[in-house]
Amino acid sequence: MARLSFEEHPKESLHVMLFDQVANSSELLERIKAGKFEPEATVVDGELVMDLFPLNVAANKALTANARGDLVTRSLHAELLHNLSGSKHIVESLNRFGISPKSEKILVAKFNATDEDVGKLKELIKGEEVDMQALPKHANVERIKQLYGISPEETRAQYIVDSIVMKMATKSMS
Q1: How far apart, in Å, are the Cα atoms of 44 and each of 67, 82, 168?
Q2: Cα separation of the two ends of the chain
Q3: Rounded-to-integer distance, Cα 56 and Cα 58, Å
Q4: Contact at 8 Å (CB) between 120 and 28?
Q5: Mean pLDDT in the chain?
Q6: What helix, strand, coil percent values describe the chain, rounded to 5?
Q7: Is residue 156 pLDDT above 80, yes or no?
Q8: For residue 5, what pLDDT is reported?
Q9: Percent of the chain beyond pLDDT 90?
Q10: Would you call 110 helix, strand, or coil by DSSP?
Q11: 9 φ, ψ to 5°?
Q12: Does the structure show a pLDDT above 90 at 87?
């Protein structure tokens, strides 16, 4: 588990956990769609996050929008998932970066999580919690490149994570 903090939002934090060999993705997805995923958290396809930096940027952007009353989604956790995407379209972002019924790698992020929240999330997800340092090993780099539209030229010129953050940051400008 990792705990991210935010310089611009010192009272806020984000607890992040990565799970592998998840056996109940279908059940989790049903709960999310029914609005019954408790405690509320962001549930991401674990193959689509290769570094905590883009997650930190997306979370900071969500916290800033929330503080200004400018969320484009219905909740802070949905805003985080939407911000991870390179797309302006909310439904597309949620479908692409959220889990599927067959997801085996799941990343869960909870703002201002208590120990009780963390315990409930670990109990809810039927999978093996993995050390966050293993995040790059679980990433599907080719799928990430495709979803963010990262060209071969970009991967030669810079680290993929830099390209991801650039795409996230500029999505509102295109």
Answers
A1: 23, 10, 16
A2: 35
A3: 6
A4: no
A5: 92
A6: 50, 15, 30
A7: no
A8: 96
A9: 82
A10: strand
A11: -135, 70
A12: no
Give the whole-angstrom CA distance, residue 75 versus residue 66. Answer: 9
How far is it, in rounded angstroms, from Cα 159 to Cα 167?
13
Pairing of strands 128-130, 2-6: unpaired
**Rg of the chain on CA atoms, in Å:** 15
Nearest to 99 by CA among 84, 120, 114, 119: 84
The candidate with the shortest Cα–Cα distance to 117, out of 11, 14, 6, 22, is 14
* DSSP string computed for 8-77: TEEEEEEEEEEEES-S-HHHHHHHHHTT--SS--EEEEGGG---HHHHHHHHHHHHHHHHHT--SSSSHH
Q: Which residue has the tokens 């109990």?
A: 123
Angle at 69 between CA 10 and CA 33, to 5 degrees: 95
Measure the CA–CA gap between 29 and 34, rounded to whole angstroms: 9
- Using 50, 70 and 90 to split pLDDT, how confident is the model at 167? confident
